[in-house]
Structures are given as structure tokens and as C-alpha cells.
Amino acid sequence: MSTERVSVSQAPDLSDRAFTTWQDLLEERLGLQLPEQRRSFLKTSLSIRMRELGFDDYLDYYRYVRSGDAGLVEWNILIDRVTVQETRFFRDPAAFALTKDFLQRRAREGERPLSLWSVGCSTGEETYSLAMMTFDLLRKEGEQGVRRFGVTGTDVSRRALETARAGAYPSRRLENLDSRLVERFFTRENDRYRINDELKDRVCFTRLNVLELARSPMANLDLIYCQNVLIYFRKWRRKEIVTELARRLAPGGMLVLGLGEVVDWKMPELTRVPGERALAYLKHK
């Protein structure tokens, strides 16, 4: 039996008071809204880490997380346990098709290097998907054209970013990926596939909490891709985040969101891209 299974089975009850206390902290620091349905997930995530440290009370552990430098270090570890890191290559085909059409047009408009941003990139599959697609689009222009783009992936989880920077994935993660792309952009190493340097050189990853977008230097972006991130936030906060992202677009740039993730949001400088299968907005030139 694994250590994790033992930890879960022996986890103490998460009282209403403790659950509410942790809910408030997660929303305060990460903006995450954790509903009652996710209570068991929180209990499991906390109890495993508590067992590793020798805590048997959720509120004692909470006080430790909020205390001094040691608490700050622990909080950064805990983020990896409570954030969802589910992703895959080309996860939303409709959104990527829309993005491809946009980038084709954008690449013909000028000589400025294309700048793309993958928000909430998790372990990097989305970011590398954007890079593969852009590389293919620009390859016909020759090697100089291929150099004319960069993709930045940001996430709050340090552990997820470590995986993204390594760019090595088990074979099962590539099962639904076009074999042509696998052959073109990956090198097999035993049971893993590693992103080739020519693609990896076009990508960078950095840590960013979306609640701290105002501090981010990201600006003048041709494309901002933010999917499956906003669903964890309250509706009013989603609109705040989307508004801040929209401000980072270059004139004529496009913002891609998850379908249904924002409702009744408008910004004078942006126009929604027609279509029912993907949600995107274009910034006026």
C-alpha cells in the first residue's frame, strides 16, 4: 500500500470551520473558489502534506502556513497540492483552429516578431502546442521567419513549471497528438518524449499568480491564450482578470478564452470573434 493511500485513509475530519478557513485563504491568495463538492479534494490534499510534516489538525497547519518565512515556503509547496494541473496537447481543437487562422493572417501583416502568451500553462502542453502550430505556420518563410516568434507560459505552480521547462513527457501524453508533429518536434528517450531544442528555444516559462497581473511586464501581445483557468474564480473576479489580460494585447491582437468561462463581459476596444465553438476577442487596431 502506498504512503499516499495510508495518509488518505487516516485523514482526520475536516470540520466546517476548518473548511471555511482554508476556503478563505485559497481565495485570498489565489482567487480560487473551492465549493463544497471539492471538500474531499481539499481534505485529501491537505492531509497528505500534514502527515509529511507531522500535523494532525487542519487549523494548526493553517496557522503554520500563515506564519513567517517558514510559512511562506510551505505555502509555495502547498500550491502544487491544491491547484489543478490537468492539461493535454491541443486540448481544444476548435480554439486552436481559430488561433491558427488568426496567426496566419497576423504573420502576413508585418515583420514584427509574433508574441504569444499561454496563461495558466500548467505542465506546458498548451504552450508547446501554440509553439508547434506557430513554428509550422512560419516555417514556409525560411529559417529567419521561424525565428520571428516567442511563446511565454505562466503558472502559479512551481512544480508544474519545472515539468514544463524540462519538456519531457511520457508516451501516453502524446497518444492523441498528430504523428507528424511527434516526429518533427520530439525526440524519444526510453519511455519519454523530449521537446526538441529548436522548438524549446522559442518558449519560456515563468511563475505568475493571475491575481497579480498588474505587476506583470507582459504587454503588446499578439495572442493571449487563457483557457480552463477562469472556471475556478468567482464571476466578478473573472471579469477583472479578463479585462487586465485584454489591456496587454497589441492593437489587432486576439484573446482566446474557454467557452462559457465569462458571461456578459464587454470592453469597448475589443470585438468578439464570430463563432459558437470557441470564445475569442479581437482588439481594435
UniProtKB/TrEMBL annotation:
Top-rank lineage group of the source organism: Bacteria
Reaction(s) this enzyme catalyzes, per UniProt: L-glutamyl-[protein] + S-adenosyl-L-methionine = [protein]-L-glutamate 5-O-methyl ester + S-adenosyl-L-homocysteine
EC number from the UniProt entry: 2.1.1.80
CDD domains recorded: AdoMet_MTases (cd02440)
Residues spanning the membrane: none
Alphabetical list of SUPFAM superfamilies matching this protein: Chemotaxis receptor methyltransferase CheR, N-terminal domain, S-adenosyl-L-methionine-dependent methyltransferases
Matching PANTHER family: CHEMOTAXIS PROTEIN METHYLTRANSFERASE
Protein name listed in UniProt: protein-glutamate O-methyltransferase
One Pfam family cited in the UniProt record for this chain: CheR
CheR-type methyltransferase domain residues: 7-263
Presence of the UniProt keyword Transferase in the record: yes
A GO molecular-function annotation: protein-glutamate O-methyltransferase activity
First-tier enzyme category under EC: transferase
Keywords per UniProt: Methyltransferase, S-adenosyl-L-methionine, Transferase
Gene behind the chain: pilK
Alphabetical GO biological process terms: methylation
